[in-house]
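Lay summary

Proteins are chains of building blocks that fold into shapes. Our project writes down both the chain and a compact code for its shape. Here are two examples, one after the other.
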Amino acid sequence: MEEKKVLSPWIISKRFDLTWFIAPGLISVIVVLLANYFGFPEPSPLGSSRTSGNALPPWLWLLLIPGVDVSHVYSTLFRAYFDKEVWNRKKVLLALVPFLCFIAALILYSFGKLFFWGAMAYLAVFHFIRQQYGFLSLYARTEPKTESKLPFLLDKICLYMVTGLPVLYWHLVPGGRHFEWFMEGDFYQYPNRSLSDFIHILFWVWVIVYSLSQVYLLLKGRRISAGKILLLFNTASVWYVGIVLLNDDLAFTLTNVINHGIPYMALVFAYSNFRKKQLPSFFYNAFRNGALAILTFSLVLLAFAFSEEWLWDSFVWREHPYLFANSSVIKAELGVGLEGILVPIFFLPQFTHYILDGFLWKGGKNNSELEGFL
């Protein structure tokens, strides 16, 4: 059974991977391309992007930001803090990382609001790229081992090219983009038409070169993971369409959030189902029933996500009383002047998620809980 898992071109199974790891990003790309063709809907003046900008219709903001983006952050609870064995073995790491993140956030915010959000934006970009690298590594493990490390080196270069080049283009294109990662001005801008055009061309040159390399390997008789190819195609499509091709907040947010959040939550759900005996009794009993497991997992994440967004809106952004029923709290102006401490506190779950993920999903003897699952 173990040997069959290693030889499989899929991480969980063909059906699961295609449904939850590959399809979400590709569907989001198709949706924004169709929306662009038929005309993007005008954003509501009451809408909001990830932080405080007017960008998305309220219902879509609720679906994408609390529903997916913030919810996926809290799925780390199931990967680490709710897993009794992981907590017992890594309690120092799991306790120390949030503390250090909070101290770091306090220091960063002391340099100013824009400095803090800029630093977090670049950290988020790195985190988003590394998540795709993690999935790529899992798919590459299913390919036959050879003495040459060149094929996987090409895979890694491809992953970084199809994600890094669109972000670099974002920094260089004159006029910038009509969207931001967290808030306006969080990315440094160096407008240069010649450089942005060169980056755009380089993206497509690399896609062609990598595609030809895979055709060559197939002709040489090497078995190539279908999951790996689909993942790279999915990643390139999301980052190119969402950042370069379409200059629209809806296109960027929809593709970016869906392709990052849904696959991660699906992976954590599969992990939690595999490790359900290590979960507290309430979750263990829920995970013994498939439908109840999905409902419980989703409701727990949504409860945490909605609570966090309620805090952000009540004490920092103060923009959505019609969504969070917090008008009395907003009118009281609680927390005014305390953003320097409140923002680091409210951002702590996301900051912790960024850092912990670098440790939690690496293989090796320190992650024995992944044995048999991946």
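And here is the second example, written the same way.
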Amino acid sequence: MSETSRHPRRSRRTVARHGELSSPHPFGTILKIFGVVIAVALVSGLGVAAYAAYDLAASFADGGVELEGQGAVPPDIGAIEGGVDLLLVGTDECEPEYASIFGDRCKGPDAEGQLNDVNMLVHIADNPRRVTVVSFPRDLMIPLPSCTREDGSVSPETSKSQINEAWSRGGLSCAAKTISDLSGENIPFAAKVSFGNVINITEAIGGVDVCIGNGGIRDPHTAIDWPAGPRTISGVEALQFLRTRHGLENGSDLARISNQQQYMSSLARKLVSEEVLSDPAALYRLATTAVDNITPSQSLANASTLVQIAMAVRGVPFEDINFVQYPVVDDPADPNRVVPHYELADKLWAALAANEPIELTNDQNNTGGVVTVDPQPTEQPVETAPDPSATGTPAPTETAVPLDDIPGQSAADQTCSAGNLRADG
């Protein structure tokens, strides 16, 4: 049986590492958009702001989506125990105020449809805590499960379909069920953010710093024509950056994932900076914006759960926060699509299940989406005097699992977009 045809059901749990830059108090990247931000206000005792943030989080319950067939969630406040899996879905719905940005996508009979074009499984390990964010390419061809829609109707399972069709077959619940079947992970938490919501969220944090390499980016499909160098992107520019693929070196969806990982790594560093973390007004503004712009599953729609997740990830250093692309190979039936590389995926899931540190040794310059910053910034080690009471027995160390052929980067890595200046985009 070939690697592209077998589709085993697995049962997994856990997370990862790699990086050059250590950090004393970083929080989990994308989780920070909603859970951790609210938790910071709560656990830091910010008076009225904390109470209001709790009230905002509680209001999440309105419109919460029930996830089909997923396990129960812990009831008590405090750091969540064990491993945790959370799915973040980005949809490309044609919101009227932003429809013009999407061009042909929001014209004609397909303008009302929604696709889960961004699918990120956030995996939080326990003892030690590590965070891995696995991005699944939108062009990935896999079997889709049968899903129950909100109106009670049932969509049939398929033997091979594009992963971003899951939303149209059953919304957030179907997207979570699809990723659960593919990964073997139980996914009790999920949330949806439309691309338009990204605009509001990035504005609330004052933008994210990215780097444009290869001489610049030109992409008429997303209206980008930016020179090389550092750039702070916010609002519409952030959405353009996250959507571009024609503006990248090889123009593929896989290159876009690498470029999005650059953004997420920078977002992680921004959210734990003094500019945000030490500013109650900024935290509250972000909490308010997040609640207004995210659709959660019912399991995630309460303040206690948000705080549980936040407390679990708040001490994870940057080098233990990793963004990886789900491993794929070209689809033999269609060169414009990809299918799972199960052998590499098994290696990734096994490392996460055992909570082994991972080392992302794949050359980022080969992704076509980013180029590395040379040299990578590092923190100088702090020298300490020997402890006379020490026994001389060294502390046990972990050997990282090298993932040579799986693209990704840690939140400690800093990369630049592999820009493309072709006139035709």
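What can we say about the second shape? Residues 1-53, 72-77, 375-396 have pLDDT under 50 and may be disordered.
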